[in-house]
Amino acid sequence: MSDSTNICLSCGLCCDGTVIGFVQLDREELPLLRDIIDIENTNGEGFFLQPCNNYCDGCTIYSKRPKQCASFECGILKSIEKQELDFDAALDIINVVKQKKFTIESELALQQIELQSQSFYFKMGEIKKLIQKNAPELALTQSQLNLIEDIKQLDNLLANKFDV
Ligand code: SF4
Ligand code: SF4
Question: Where are any strands of DSSP class E within the chain?
């Protein structure tokens, strides 16, 4: 198995709602996927939200996965394919992202910040809007400042290393 296949098996950040928030489906894919994916419909088009219900330590419908899943390549994967990054260095970056996500989720729970979205990706959008709206008027606590800093660090990691 190649390093690029292996890294995706060790990662899963594009299936669990960290790197992307939804997968767009082609119209012709809908009949085949309707029974195995919770598809949201918009005028005959389809998409599904992350975290994907077919992700369980890897894709459980790998041979039938949507086209966008099969073609998606983040910056880490591209760097491995170009041999600009080796497997261990890529795994280190992925683990830093997973740890940062865990820290942010723990901070949100500790601070009892309730967000509407199921997906971590969209939760980050929600919390950024909340901060933007309220921050100028609030005297932020150290925990809130830490949360803002962690979100910034995660954003930078995702933008710089994953190209999203
Ligand atoms: S985020 Fe990148 S490395 Fe991780 S599973 Fe998706 S394509 Fe693979
Ligand atoms: S269908 Fe498979 S590859 Fe696509 S998001 Fe779900 S688990 Fe990931």
Answer: 22-25, 40-42, 45-49
